[in-house]
Amino acid sequence: MAASGAKKKQQQQRAAVAGGAGRRRRKVPDAEEKSWQKAGSKLDEEISSDSDAESPAFGGKRKKDNEADEIEETAQEKKLRLAKLYLKQLRQQEEEKAEEEALEEDLVAGRLKEDVLEQKGKLQRLIAKDLQPPDTAAIRVLRGHQLPITCLVISPDDKCIFSAAKDCSIIKWDVESGKKLHVIPGGKKGTEAQHVGHTAHVLSMAISSDGKYLATGDRNKLIMIWEAVTCKHLYKFSGHRDAVTGLSFQKGTHQLYSASHDRSVKVWNVAENAYVETLFGHQDAITGLDSLSRECCVTSGGRDGTVRVWKIPEESQLVFYGHQGSIDCVQLINEEHMVSGADDGSVALWGLSKKKPLTTVRQAHSNHGAQGLEQPYWISSVATLLNSDVVATGSHSSSVRLWKCGEGFRRLEPLFDIPLIGFVNSLKFSNAGDFLVVGVGQEHRLGRWWRIKEAKNSICIIPLQRTAADSAQPADGS
Questions:
Q1: Is 399 left (phi over 0), alpha (psi -120 to 50) or beta?
Q2: Smallest Cα–Cα separation from 151: which of 233, 218, 221, 236?
Q3: Looking at residue 405, what is its pLDDT?
Q4: What's the sign of the alpha-carbon dihedral 441, 444, 448, 451?
Q5: Which of 1, 109, 254, 413 is deepest in the core (most CB within 10 A)?
Q6: What's phi and psi for 402, nearest 5 deg?
């Protein structure tokens, strides 16, 4: 009875709660209900679109990240990976180092090979094929001397030019700007005791290979030594009995060779301000002299018709015959080959192992004069680009001519002419082969046989242009 009453009471309480709930619920108008439904459906769309963006791609990425997190690297595996990476880097460094060493060895071997070929006189850089005729507008003219230029040299670093003339003056020029860096004025005849410098035509000039000393020789039989950097006068060498016409330093030393119209060659030690010895052999006035690294020099003997190679330690000489006229200039191409020019208009190439020229070009600068009375233009100067196949010759034919030495120095082929009016009394190639310097005068350096009034006493710097890199190969000629 009590149980049935309790059950009935619970049923009444539930009904009361349901009735209350029914009483609290109010009726929502249709329009409002529609708007709520619309907002709810929009919210559902936004939520579902967000969830779509996350799943399947994002979900897959997260899954992969989770997997990566799960596959964690052990300490041992990390050590192994780092060790492999370190070994790989070491291997790369070793390979790079080996490549650099191999390249350096190749460069050193190439340089040593060139040095050996140079010492043997068999190095020949093939430059001629790449040379182009210069633009005449690019030729720079330096004016400073009052009388014809007789000689010039270029400093070993190609930054300065030293020139001398019949006005007895010496001028140091800056190559880049063309400005005068220093002028050593010439003195009047009879002022030798007071004047520091030359009082007669300066006929020859040389500079040491380290650029320390400058030597100049004049018609008064004197050789003067100057400090090349400051142009300070150091010494005066006297001993020749006539005009000093040739000077040259042995490459790599301060040993100086001098040649004179007195037919002798003298050897001097400039660093010690000392005379060494005198060599005799020429039968006429010596007109030119040159030397390189070996303890020997070459001279041209003017009207005795010989070119001579003087071997200083052996106190011997080699005599070469080939020109028909007076040999006025000579230059070494390398330790075993040389070129000479004569007043018969010929240019000859020589090998030191043969007494006759390897090749001779007659009338190298053609002829001049009335018909039937033609005479060849004298070859007044020659220049060589050291250890190459390029030669330059000068005359008073209104041009400087460049030549190519054929294989084995057995041919001499004209390359091109550079127009220049006047006597070309001196020619020098820069050490790098970038330019050619010409000393031009109205008269020949050794006399006054002709006078070209329209010529200007000047220094001309001619740029040399190449089309490609040059190559070096052994010279087979002897």
A1: beta
A2: 218
A3: 92
A4: negative
A5: 254
A6: -100, 140
CA 340 to each of CA 206, 345, 349: distance values in angstroms, whole numbers, following the listed order: 18, 11, 7
List, in order, residues 6 or more apart from 267 with CB less than 8 Å away.
255, 256, 257, 275, 276, 277, 278, 279, 312
CA nearest to 434, candidates 140, 113, 214, 122: 140
Average pLDDT (260-285) is 95
H helices, E strands: number in the chain: 4, 34
- Identify the helix (H) or strand (E) that includes residue 32: helix 30-53
Which one, of 267, 407, 284, 428, lies nearest residue 342 by Cα?
284
Cα–Cα dist 153/297, whole Å: 18
CA–CA separation, 175 and 38 (whole Å): 93
Give one word for 439, left, alpha or beta, with left for phi > 0 and alpha for psi -120 to 50. beta
* Confidence (pTM): 0.74
Q: Which of 422, 414, 417, 412 is nearest to 453 (CA)?
A: 422
Residue whose entry in the numeric block shows the structure tokens 């010895």: 277
| AA identity, residue 453 | K
- Sign for the pseudo-dihedral over CA of 324, 361, 148, 286: negative
Positive/negative CA dihedral, 86, 87, 88, 94: positive
Q: Any idea which residue has 């619970």 for tokens? A: 10
443, with CB counted inside 10 A (0-12, 13-18, 19+), is buried
Specify the 3-state DSSP secondary structure of 242.
coil
pLDDT in tens, 354-385: 999 999 999 999 888 878 788 999 999 999 99
Q: Quote the pLDDT of residue 227.
A: 95
Cα separation, 231 vs 155, in Å, equals 13
Neighbour order of strands in the sheet with 180-184: 149-154, 160-165, 170-174, 180-184
Q: Which one-letter DSSP state was computed for residue 8?
A: H
Question: Of all helices (H) and strands (E), which one includes residue 111?
Answer: helix 75-120
User: d(Cα 398, Cα 401) in Å, to the nearest integer?
Assistant: 10
The tokens of 150 are what?
């007789």
- Cβ proximity of 165 and 457 under 8 Å: yes
Amino acid at 432: A
